[in-house]
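TA notes. Do not distribute before section.
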Amino acid sequence: MKKTKALLLCLVTIVLAFSVAGCGNSEESSGSGSDKEKVEIRFSWWGDTKRNEVYNSIVDKFEEKHPNITVKREFGGWNDYWEKLATQIAGGNAPDVVSMHQFYVSEYARKNALLDLNEYVKSGVINLDQFPEPVIESGQLDDKTLMVAKGVTMSGVVYNTGLFDKLGVKYPDMNWTWEDFAAKAIEVDKALNTDDTWGADDLSGNFQQEFRYFVRQNGKDLFNDNGEIAFGKEDLIEWFTMWDKLRKQGAIPDAETTAEYPENIALEQSLFIRGKTGISFIPVNRLYLYQQQIKDGEVHEVRIPTKSGGKNGEFIEGAYLSVSAKTKHPKEAAEFINFFVNEKEALKRFKVEQGPPANKKMMEEVVVPLLEPAQKRTVDFVQETVQHAERAPYAPSGVNEIETAFKDTASAIAFGKTSIKDGANKFMKDAKAVLKK
């Protein structure tokens, strides 16, 4: 289902506009009395300590309103979460409600591991009346509703105004190029002028966000609608060459440092928060978490660099909720999803934890008045960048293996264990082999 520019503009208007649209409040749409049968469901998510606090508070409120339903909570870091979920799905013991992402949904959809929620949407158990159509469609695959959006987000590049002001470096422009990025990383590195600081983080191994933007700017994508690799070896060579040049210039960390500070490291320990790098790449829903760690200056975000004369790389990103196909309590799982995405008590805690919520009425009336300045910057960033976004095909089954192979290739190049050309050749061969399984 192709999203037109009109639909994307509709997303901006509906989700983020502050005019109140009349609609029934879902807060009174459901409720479970204490006389109902006692049920236990499991809910899993990824995140850090702060997100765990937010989600636990939402679950607590759900249990208060639904005294017959107990929710067992399971959570972990990003990498651990997906590894555990894959094992649970394979073993037939996945949680009833699972946090899902568009990078991985087809991996499980093609294994028939996720429940089609159309029945619960049509019956109103899950109320999507206040969801923009593009957001509803983003959770659908083969006419099945497999995900319901918790929040809509976009990726970008962050910097700390306090550090840039101290260094006398001008802020990045919202519409900058990869050439501008390289020049800015070099400028920041020279201004920092120490052996253990760098201009920017090394994101050469990020497959499904930064590299995806890059190939989309070349008029391609990671995959096509048939689940085949949609970029060429030449795109890999261009990508890895750019980062290799920055590494040799000292503008990004050496291979050993990057390995010591992986993307999934605790936020407070990251190079950016510690002031060891001046530029990093993150989904904008995490901006306020970065701001909480930065006391001197404001954390701001600009678009991921574009290619001179190239296309826009943006695509609508988000975090979702799905139900395991093997759940024994589908209605209760659906009720939990409805509470999470529609109820006032849930959304005033969620705020923009994984992007602005899709329910326009709750966004306008409940969430916006509660936002801190950094969270408002998140909303502003989504509002501006979503206008550049277009549909991105879902990743095929096997994307986890392909993503790992990409990271391994980037690491091997950084450590000098393989040449860029040989690394690109090997990756293409390995990725295509995964897709043929």
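Switch to the second chain here.
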Amino acid sequence: MNDSAYGNVPLSQLPADEKAKRAASFGAAASHYERYRPGPPPAAVDWVVPQHVGRIVDLGAGTGALTRLLTDRADEVVAVEPDDRMRAVLASEVPAARAVGGRGESIPLPDGFADAVIASSSWHWMDPLPTLHEVGRVLVPGGVLAALWSGPDPEGAFIDQARALLAQRPQGAGDTEAADAILTDTDRPLPTLEILPGVPFEAPEHEIFRWDVALTADDLIGLLGTLSWVITMEPDVRERILTSARRLLAELLGVEGDVTVDVGFRCDVWRSARQV
């Protein structure tokens, strides 16, 4: 299927080939991703790595939104990223880290290398069983695996207001795809880090962090443009949806030009210790 045939279908419901296509899509928008996709808050990283350690691996590091928060928390930070274009931006933006090619299922690091392995908005793209085995191999006994997801809070005031105002629009007003883009985040994984049988990890702990960010219409449209189902659309379809979304932001929420709106963000964090 092409362009938006699957629309904003949740990742868990996508055919394997479509999920693989989306997983490989971000490099085409690497600079855009660096500009608009938020990283986790420092408080979330503090919860995972409360004190300075020897080595941290940022797994599926993208353009380095998490990596830049780790460089003062370890003697060495290694960012593992499979996409050459994303990794090139990361290496330029976060020179204090060592950027290497690789993926969760095949981490190019020796046994017992790291005190912590952290995946930020990337764990759901990996095959969990081989990735858990690989992370277990790379971690020292007692080391920490953490999976984070950051994005607009689906329970936040901005989303609630947008949902209510969109519901009041007359039937047939159109812009359904644009409204879905504003209201949904299909990259959000299930709210758990599942530790599968036979892997050397303890039951995970879960914590939630919330904060507000003042965003303009350009920021919001830019953020929508980092979603895989938007990136993989045909250019004319993507432009139509983003143009409609911009119009809805202006008409319903008064967000246009330099006007900002406080958008609630949420970071879910799961951490699990490697068994000794």
